Amino acid sequence: MADDRTISKTLSYWLRHRPDAADLTLDGAGWTDVDAVLAALAGQRIECDWERLLSVVETNDKQRYELSADGARIRATQGHSITVELDWPRREPPELLYHGTVDRFLTPIRADGLRPMRRHHVHLSPDIATATIVGNRRGKAVILTVRAGDLARSGRAFFLTGNGVWLTDHVPPAFLSEG
Ligand code: HQG
Questions:
Q1: For a pocket test of ligand 1, which of 4, 13, 81, 123 has the largest count of ligand atoms closer than 8 A to its C-beta?
Q2: In terms of CATH architecture, what is 97-178?
Q3: Which end of the chain, N or C, is less packed with Cβ atoms under 10 Å?
Q4: What is the pLDDT of residues 20-51, one digit of tens each?
């Protein structure tokens, strides 16, 4: 069997960014057939059966994938660059959320706020520890505090994913503070 990381990285690439690379078709909410994914993995010589796929989905550190209730379909929970309508519920956020980034992005962020960049949404973390992990992916994490409660009361929508990530369209500079 292939290792979990190989399977997970391949799933992320296909289900978030390039379904066409594996001849997969996603529906409007990002779902595709598990059987098609298993066939595509086999086609890439990535050994993975249904049970292994289930275990990758269940043990993934950030719950990046989900299976439909009947186990026949799979999708990425977030992080897409392709167009999908994720049906995450709109929720009132806590007063404060956090965003982990790095020094080199601070100048544009101060000018323009947080933008989705290549994703559909800005991703915000519920606590500093999680934001630190996100920021450390790119260097030494710098933590921005987002006045999410105020931003929501100003009319901005927030959505909460199945794995605890808060999504929104844009965080203007006035709602951000450093540290
Ligand atoms: C920065 C991972 C310039 C932003 C993580 C970030 C997370 C700006 C980068 C999830 C900017 C985008 C999301 C602006 C924001 N000008 N740079 N106006 N606004 N940025 O990866 O939040 O492993 O798209 O600070 O753990 O780092 O994929 O977003 O550094 O949960 O499941 O532009 O991705 O999860 O980077 O990470 P990303 P992110 P997965």
A1: 123
A2: Alpha-Beta Barrel (3.20)
A3: C
A4: 999 999 999 999 999 999 999 999 999 999 99
